[in-house]
Structures are given as structure tokens and as C-alpha cells.
Amino acid sequence: MLYRTAMLVDDDLVFTTMLSRFLQQKKLRVHSLKDGRAAKSYLLDGRPDIVICDVVLPYHSGFELVKFIRKELELLVPIIMISSIDSENALNKSLVAGANVFLPKPLDLGVLSDQLAHFLKLEPSGNILTNKM
Questions:
Q1: What 3-state class would DSSP assign to 32?
Q2: What does the angle CA 75 – CA 26 – CA 107 come to, to the nearest 5 degrees?
Q3: Which residue has the higher pLDDT, 124 or 20?
Q4: Average pLDDT over the chain, rounded to whole?
Q5: Residue in 110, 50, 114, 107 with CA at minimum distance from that of residue 82
Q6: Is the pLDDT of residue 18 over 60?
Q7: Are the beta carbons of 101 and 52 closer than 8 angstroms?
Q8: Exposed, middle or buried, 72 (CB in 10 Å: 0-12/13-18/19+)?
Q9: Residue 41: C-alpha distances to residues 14, 33, 60, 69, 82 (Å)
Q10: Most distant CA atoms of the chain, gap in Å
Q11: Is 20 left (phi over 0), alpha (psi -120 to 50) or beta?
């Protein structure tokens, strides 16, 4: 079975642990990082298939991290921004920075599953879709 890689960046250890388990159930390898500096360092060598990133992070905000991914690294990886700041301003700043999607916390896991399926071409079971002849 093929595994895709998710980079999860959030400084809330309890939230990160629970979301990592959910992502692993979706057959994703998860690299959990607690701040923007660690995420930038990981991205210098690692190439995740999807990024899930909180807006508020130590050292570099989620907005700064997204700009780094888009402008400096020029990666087209799908980025899902998450935040307990459920405002139109956070949504707009996320999209302007280069995120594909903004999801408010608490996360609706059904919506997250739909986004993962869309970006990673996953079946509802979490398996990667293949072209069938």
C-alpha cells in the first residue's frame, strides 16, 4: 500500500496527537511539528503531500509559513489552514498567503476527510485511488 505524507503543524500537543491518529487512520504518514521554525527546517529536505497548519504558531505564524512554502520554496502542495480564530479576516489572510482551504477549530472531521479526499485522491476508506480499467 502506498502512503502519502502529511505535515501537521500545531503547538497544541493534545490536538496534534488526536489529529495525527485521525490522519494515520486515513493511511497518511504524519510529521507533527510544534512551531513554524521546525516546519521550515523540515521543508528544506522533506516534501509532504499535504500541509495542515495552524494560524497561530511560535516563531513563525501559519501565514508566514504558507508564504515561505509558496514564494520561497515554490511548492504547489495543498495547504489546509486551521484555527480557533474563526473569522473572515483569518480566512482571507490564509487564502491570500496561499492556502487552499481554511477550516475553523474545532475541526469538522467530515469536512477534513472531504478535503483530504479531494487533494489526495483518497477513497472514503483512506486508500489511494487508482485508475481501474
A1: strand
A2: 80
A3: 20
A4: 89
A5: 107
A6: yes
A7: no
A8: exposed
A9: 23, 10, 12, 11, 21
A10: 49
A11: alpha
What confidence tier does 92 reach under pLDDT thresholds 50, 70, 90? very high
Split at pLDDT 50, 70, 90, the class of 87 is: confident
Q: In the sheet that 4-9 helps form, which strands lie side by side, from edge to edge?
A: 28-33, 4-9, 50-54, 79-83, 101-104
2: which 3 cell numbers?
502506498
Reading the block at residue 16, the C-alpha cell is 496534534
CB atoms inside a 10 Å sphere around CB 20: 18
What percentage of residues in the chain have a pLDDT greater than 70? 89
- Strand ranges, E, within the chain: 4-9, 28-33, 50-54, 79-83, 101-104
**Do residues 83 and 102 lie in contact, with contact meaning Cβ atoms separated by under 8 Å?**
yes
Q: Which residue has the cell 472531521?
A: 109
Residue type, 128: I
Residues 6+ apart with CB under 8 A from 67: 97, 98
